[in-house]
Amino acid sequence: MDNVSQYQFDLTEVGKLLVKKQGIKEGLWTVGVQFALGAVNAGPDPTKVMPSMLVSVEKVMLTRATEMTPLTVDASKD
Q: Nearest-CA neighbor of 12 among 65, 77, 69?
């Protein structure tokens, strides 16, 4: 067995997997992410602290779409 330390998936691949996991068989679905934002005082060192923003990915989601985009999955085909 290979000693694999990382797998990568593009967002369209993630969308296809989520559509399959949810058992969705029809419609267009776009994969997206929900971000969480936070404010902090931060800097490279204590003398250069400035108001800053933290951004984190909170959730991955599927949203029904009306047209194809690069992030859209057609559930009837995938």
A: 69
The torsion angles phi and psi of 55, rounded to 5 degrees, stand at -125, 130
DSSP state string for 38-64: EEEEE-SSGGG-EEEEEEEEEEEEEEE
Flag whether the pTM goes above 0.85: no
Residues 38-64: tens digit of each pLDDT? 999 999 999 999 999 999 999 999 999
**Alpha-carbon distances, residue 53 vs 33, 48, 64 (angstroms):** 18, 15, 30
Distance CA 61, CA 59 (A): 6
The two tokens of residue 55 are 């951004």
